[in-house]
Design goal:
Elements (H helix, E strand, L loop, with lengths): L1 H8 L4 H9 L6 H6 L1 E13 L3 H22 L9 H22 L4 H10 L2 H7 L2 H7 L18 H25 L5 H10 L8 H9 L2 H12 L2 H15 L7 H7 L4 E14 L2
Helix pairs in contact: 2-10, 4-9, 5-6, 5-7, 5-10, 9-13, 10-12, 12-13
Length: about 280
């Protein structure tokens, strides 16, 4: 127990955890020989008109989406007895909950972040279930647990709730970044999207998500493109196409979410990260 606590206290910054993920990417032999990860892409970046009045509205809706989302992902204690899996889940939830704290601005934000950071990963995984999360984030409505039987694992049953949560979260993250480019919310969103598959209720969906190579196609565009809204919007459209639906136009998306794009630009990214 003591050794576990010691291990969990060694908290990593999101950038360091992302660098650890680079090491899992299969590079070509030249990159392997130089112990480097090379990422080159042209990304579409938008600047949005995110006024405080609109953001207050998004925050209120986000709390509703968050409540439903938590009822899905934190209804039951994980069944797996595997210690590593519980550490992985606990670490994921810790970063997710810290990100949520960053964007909903509770009165005791610093204390909430400290409490999360100091919590043992396995303890968090086992104890911060729906009711504890609801109280922690100050959510007033109490929802029934969202338990899905296998025949209900279609996107129609749970997908819209996950997407509402992710889209609203991306807007709040973008708002924090446009106010302060040093705000950590963008890094935290990039980090949790690497392993978002671990909380998808459908095993097939989880496999498809991993096949998308989320580090390269989701996390790095968020981290270096600095347009969280568009990356999540694009991901949603890719899922739509895979399910036989048509691409949802960006004009319709911004209208639905009452957003306004002020500027669009292509950004060339060419970075080399050491793996050591």
């Amino acid at each position: 127990m003591d050794s576990t606590s010691k291990e969990e206290k060694n908290e990593l910054h999101p950038k360091q955890m992302l660098e650890d993920n680079y090491k899992n990417i299969k590079n070509n032999s030249e990159e392997d020989n130089h112990h480097e990860f090379h990422y080159k892409a042209t990304l579409l970046r938008h600047t949005y008109n995110l006024n405080p009045e609109r953001i207050n509205e998004v925050q209120e809706n986000f709390k509703k989406y968050l409540n439903i989302f938590l009822a899905y992902i934190r209804t039951d204690k994980p069944e797996s007895a595997d210690f590593f899996q519980r550490v992985t889940l606990g670490r994921f939830f810790k970063k997710l909950f810290m990100l949520i704290t960053f964007v909903i601005h509770p009165i005791n934000c610093d204390e909430s972040l400290k409490q999360l950071n100091n919590m043992n990963d396995v303890t968090l995984c086992n104890t911060m279930l729906y009711e504890e999360c609801r109280e922690f984030f100050g959510l007033k409505s109490i929802l029934e647990p969202k338990k899905l039987d296998q025949e209900e694992w279609s996107l129609d049953e749970w997908g819209k709730n996950y997407w509402n949560f992710l889209h609203a979260l991306s807007i709040l993250v973008q708002y924090e970044y446009q106010k302060d480019s040093n705000h950590p919310a963008m890094d935290y969103l990039a980090l949790i999207m690497v392993n978002f598959h671990i909380i998808l209720p459908c095993s097939v969906c989880s496999v498809h998500y991993k096949e998308r190579n989320p580090l390269v196609n989701i996390t790095l565009p968020i981290l270096h493109g600095k347009d969280a809204i568009y990356v999540i919007y694009e991901l949603h459209n890719i899922v739509r196409l895979r399910n036989g639906l048509v691409w949802f136009p960006i004009e319709s998306f911004v209208k639905n979410w009452n957003l306004e794009i002020l500027k669009s630009e292509n950004v060339d990214i060419d970075i080399t990260e050491p793996l050591s």
